[in-house]
Design goal:
Elements (H helix, E strand, L loop, with lengths): L1 H7 L7 H35 L3 H29 L1 H20 L4 H29 L5 H5 L1 H20 L4 H10 L2 H10 L7 H6 L3 H11 L3 H15 L21 H7 L3 H17 L4 H6 L1 H7 L5 H29 L1 H29 L6 H19 L2 H11 L6 H30 L1 H22 L11 H4 L4 H6 L21
Helix pairs in contact: 2-4, 2-5, 2-7, 2-8, 3-4, 3-5, 3-21, 4-5, 4-8, 4-9, 5-21, 7-8, 7-17, 11-12, 14-20, 14-21, 14-22, 16-17, 17-18, 17-19, 18-19, 18-22, 21-22
């Protein structure tokens, strides 16, 4: 046991090569974030140039997430078939095609088509980036590296906001096309560059390519002993014979991923059922906090709060992007030290308070029109946009992806993650495509009061149904969910009081 702690502690799990691979694999998320951020400003110019109405604007904003369903629901099976690395490259190629179509679009129809293609790439990117990071890293740094896609999304959004601000000076006919088309350049570079990365060792083991998996583990682990120990754990989780030098797969290469839907939805074991509720639930609630409404429609919110000129609105959205990026970096530094649950629940507390105050401020501003709005209401509205972004970014944003990528058993991870992303995109599309209609129906302040109430429900869900996973090897996470929901309701903290590992200090599975 002491040997195992020595292997897992100290420098174990902090291999810089593993971190570098996770960063490169997460760059695909920058492209997705850029597309989201740049569209928030580009819509102001598209509406003017193409004479689109509010319905078309909502469709353009939300169609990305509808089409992401196609990508997310196929990405899991594709990544089980061709591997995690090639799936990242495929996502980058799809992004390239979508960005090129949008940048060259002569009319609304072609613009919408390009947005649809990019949406498929979004589905692939959201599924594969955290899964690759989770599978190539160790338990000690897994929370940080699986949060990298979220910081990359935020950085991409910030770059999109900056592109809006800089390219707004171009003639109207070129400005928004340049904003949307620029995403094609890094997509092409990433599609080629990612091929230099190693494949996920867990995928290689599932394919029966154990020697190759060991070679990768020795690259991403600090010691050969740690690599051997992790390989033993992965082989047991993958259903391989872990005794002796000759290891035979119970599933032939190429059969990986078959039967997963049956195990997840038709005949799940009690722990798997609880895992699915937790993993799908965090995706369901993420966008019900209203983040998409704030990020995508922040120009309208700032305009409603009294910021008048287009230049001032775009500058304020850059501030939103900076805030989001800084606080996600904070989350990455804390998630493996503090744990998932404290950060997530603290984040939701800040979200509820911020949304309630934002609702108050915007309600006062709206009811003061057409007269001059009270200065305190304007300041409160603007300030709470930033506190909301900070609260979301320090917990709910990154931990949704980290938590949902690590809780699935190895055999279910890729396709389970793809279903989670599909749920995430449905909720994203639902919010982004209905927000304008919602705030016209219940006022913009009322819309944020509604989001505050839903965030409170999300806090109750996570508190009772989502146990802590900090520091657990991926192969042990299923054990964490072995306790029933009623037992966790009586004592939520007790759900994590389980043995540290199924592998003894010598690297052999315990009976």
């Amino acid at each position: 046991m002491g040997e195992e702690k020595q292997l897992r502690g100290g420098h174990a799990g902090k291999n810089k090569y593993a971190v570098a691979c996770s960063i490169i694999g997460s760059i695909i998320s920058i492209l997705m974030g850029y597309d989201t951020g740049v569209m928030s400003g580009a819509m102001l110019f598209i509406k003017e140039d193409l004479k689109t109405n509010d319905t078309q604007v909502q469709v353009l904003a939300g169609i990305l997430n509808v089409c992401a369903l196609v990508g997310s629901l196929t990405a899991g099976r594709v990544s089980d078939w061709i591997g995690r690395r090639l799936t990242i490259s495929l996502a980058a190629c799809i992004f390239f095609a979508g960005s090129a179509l949008m940048g060259l679009a002569p009319n609304f129809g072609m613009l919408l088509a390009g947005r649809c293609v990019a949406g498929v790439g979004v589905g692939y990117a959201l599924m594969i980036a955290p899964v690759y990071a989770a599978e190539i890293s160790s338990a000690q740094i897994r929370g940080s590296v699986t949060s990298l896609p979220e910081i990359c999304i935020s950085f991409g959004i910030l770059v999109g906001y900056v592109a809006n601000y800089l390219l707004a000076k171009l003639p109207l006919v070129y400005g928004w096309r340049a904003m949307l088309g620029l995403g094609a350049l890094p997509s092409a570079a990433l599609a080629v560059g990612v091929l230099a990365m190693p494949e996920s060792p867990r995928w290689l083991v599932m394919q029966g390519r154990v020697e190759q998996a060991l070679a990768v583990l020795r690259q991403v682990c600090d010691t050969a002993a740690e690599a051997d120990m992790r390989l033993a754990e992965i082989k047991v989780a993958a259903g391989l014979d872990a005794t002796g030098d000759a290891v035979a797969a119970t599933n032939a290469p190429g059969s990986v991923g078959k039967g997963v839907w049956r195990e997840m939805f038709l005949h799940p074991t009690p722990p798997v059922r609880r895992i699915l509720v937790a993993a799908f639930g965090v995706h369901f609630f993420q966008h019900l906090t209203g983040i998409e409404a704030v990020v995508l429609y922040s120009p309208r919110i700032f305009k409603a709060a009294g910021i008048a000129t287009r230049s001032e609105i775009l500058a304020a959205t850059v501030g939103v992007g900076v805030t989001k990026t800084v606080f996600i970096l904070t989350a990455i530094l804390l998630v493996d030290r503090v744990g998932r649950r404290p950060l997530y629940l603290s984040s939701l507390a800040g979200i509820v308070a911020s949304l309630a105050c934002l609702g108050v401020g915007l309600t006062v501003v709206e009811r003061s029109a057409p007269h001059h709005s009270p200065a305190w209401a304007v300041v409160l509205s603007i300030l709470t946009v930033f506190t909301f972004i900070a609260s979301f970014s320090v917990g709910v944003g990154p931990i949704t992806w980290a938590y949902s990528s690590e809780v699935y058993p190895l055999r279910l991870r890729a396709q389970g993650a793809s279903v989670g992303v599909a749920i995430n995109r449905v909720m994203n599309a639902g919010v982004s495509m209905t927000f304008v209609s919602l705030y016209k129906a219940v006022t913009i302040g009322g819309a944020f009061f509604l989001f505050a109430g839903l965030a409170a429900v999300a806090a109750a869900f996570f508190y009772f149904l989502c146990p802590e996973t900090q520091g657990r090897p991926l192969e042990e996470i299923e054990e964490v969910f072995s306790r029933g929901w009623l037992a966790r309701l009586r004592s939520p903290a007790a759900a994590v009081e389980l043995p540290v590992s199924n592998v003894d200090g010598g690297g052999k599975p315990r009976p």
